[in-house]
Amino acid sequence: MGGTVTLAALALWALVIFYAYTVSMPRAQYGVLFIAGAIGVYILNELEDVIADRDYLDAALLLGSLVITIAITVYVNLHFRELYIDRVGYAFPHEYALAAAFLAAIVYLSWRSFGLTFLSILVGALLYGYFGDLIPGILGHSGLSYSRLLLLLALDITGFYGFLTQLVAAWIALFLLYAGLLESYGAFDLIFRGAVRTSKYIDSGVAQTAVVASAVIGSINGSQTANAGMTGSFTIPMMKENGIKPSTAGGIEAVASTTGQVLPPVMGAGAFIMASLLGISYVTVITAGLIPAMIMMVCIILAVHYIASNQLDSIDVDAVLDELEDRTRRDTLVDTVKFIIPFGVLVYTLGVIQLTVMTSALYTAVTMLITGITFPVFQAAYESRSVTAATRETLSDTVAGFRRGAIITAPIAIILAAINGVVDILMTTGVPGILTLSMMDISGGIMLVAVLISMVICILLGLGMPTTAAYTVVALLVAPTLVSRFLVPDLAAHFFVFYGAILSGLTPPIATCAAVAAGIANADFVETCYEAIKVAAPLFVLPFSFIYHPVIVSGVLSGGAVFTGLLILLGGISIIHGINYRFGYGKWAQLGTRVAFFVVGVLTMVYPNSTVQYAGAGVIITLFVVQQLATRNVAVGDTINN
Q1: Domains of the chain by residue range
Q2: Which residues of 488-525 are buried (b: 16+ CB within 10 A; e: fewer)?
């Protein structure tokens, strides 16, 4: 079965690379073929474990879903022009039957991949679309017939085959291939070794390993939960082995995996969808994301330092590195150059000459293939080692990278196809307009109330979903209200809902990212969520800064944007300091100091009046100086008394 999965993965990437190079068919038709390939990879990969567990019912359902997918894919491609152009809105009885079977397969695969939370969203959207005429009040609508739903979801080449599926196929897939190749060629080991070396210079260096490794890896793979499982499998045990409490280790990993989703240049693949929805360049989106990412990373690194440095035991960095792998300086240099070149190609093609995202991703993936294959072979020849053995090993790594990239891509493609169906149903029934009116009524036209409600909606709608899926839902349902009714700039509104959606991974009672990290750490779920929120506290405030200070996400790195970003950063540091710093004096004085740092930090981050921000910055600096003097006096007093 493993060989079958590998062949399916290679076939999928052959299709993706062929289309990116030739663009020889309509994107909608390519999307039909792509989602079929992704479903095929997912099913074949899952069948390995299912057959090993002798779960024959699940195996039968998976195989049935595969047969249905193949059947509808072949049929749609044979009749593509008819369905897509000639008779849109009309279908034959056997086509309705085929579409119904495919709907059942998507529902089953979505439930199997992402559980009951997402299943309830998908089934709820279907029921809402069908029974809309029975719903009283403003949420009611005329109802969509059975045939209309099936046309919308599949037969008109919309719904499951719509713009999200096509976006994954044309833009995101090649970056996920790049992520798979990075992993198989050893990039993550290189990042990990570099992060561990910082322990020589920073007390919390081992814990910072999770922040650096998970953020970099998570920025590419598009799912904070999957990232927590992948990087947490080695960062969490390492933190625990060096003295960090299980719940703290799990919380740090959960936050690090979450922050990677908003880290440029890939931003968990959400940047591509944002650029597409707003009709702006990808470069504008990642430029807009730089200042928030800087604020976020500095705050989290500081929080991790405060928390972890008091728990960590001393660590023998050289011994840890020896355990990881016996690598020479030459090996490290070769690996570094091997990975920097493709990344340089990505930055050059996207940021300098501004090629299309698909072309840039293709050049990046191909460059990664070239450097990943040739560098180890040339190094083996230079060191008089067996070139044949090196070639065999690097080709094996390449195939593993193709397989890993496909396995990462498959569930993301499936859930985005399902989300596309949900979005099309909701758009057809007019829900965005309804939510706009409802939010206006509830908020009374007060922006602060509206954005608080919006944040709650974003967290609820983002539960249990990958970054790209969660962002898409809230971008289409929540962001338009902020733009149309409260005149929030487009980028500010979209960054607000983007950050809001990913917070669901840290927010109880679901907190899927924290749940995965807690499982790996063998820690209590609630305690892990508590530790994660302590680290990520400014991340819950930062989205409101986008609303009241949109200059920091304007897409232009002006002096005013940078200065405002620094003020907001100071506010975030104040929040972290107030929550996590170990003050050296009495309980009530300590509580008062924590509250003061927290409140002033929030005001400095969010308050729209610049004068208040300046005053807040002055108060923060004054509080810090007074706290340091008070702590020093306490320490001196203790010394005298002793």
Answers
A1: 1-164, 172-283+291-404, 558-641
A2: bbbbbbbbbbbbbbbbbbbbeebbbbbbbbbbbbebeb
Alpha-carbon distance of 224 to 395, in angstroms, equals: 29
Query: Which residues fall within 8 angstroms of residue 272, CB to CB, at 6 or more apart?
Result: 167, 171, 172, 175, 282, 357
Report yes or no: 517 and 228 within 8 Å, Cβ to Cβ: yes
Rounded distance between C-alpha atoms, residue 7 and residue 399, angstroms = 10
Q: How far is CA 622 from CA 596, 615, 626, in A?
A: 11, 10, 6
Residue 384, CA distances (Å) to 64, 329, 388 in order: 53, 17, 11
- Residue 593 and residue 533 in contact, taking contact as beta carbons nearer than 8 Å: no
Exposed/middle/buried for residue 551 (C-beta within 10 Å: 0-12, 13-18, 19+): middle
Q: Are 69 and 105 in contact (CB under 8 A)?
A: yes
Tens digit of each residue's pLDDT (9 = 90 or more) over 295-347: 998 999 899 888 887 776 555 555 555 555 556 677 788 888 999 999 889 87
Q: Are 624 and 563 in contact (CB under 8 A)?
A: no
Q: What is the CA radius of gyration of the chain?
A: 26
* pLDDT at position 54: 86
What number is the average pLDDT over the span 105-118?
A: 86
Q: In whole angstroms, give the CA distance from residue 126 to residue 425.
A: 7
What would the pLDDT profile of 409-454 be if each residue is shown by its tens digit?
A: 898 888 888 888 988 898 888 876 677 667 767 777 788 888 888 8
Q: Which two tokens stand for residue 119?
A: 């299943």
pTM of this structure = 0.76
Q: Which two three-digit tokens encode residue 81?
A: 């022009």
Peptide bond into 376 cis (omega under 30): no
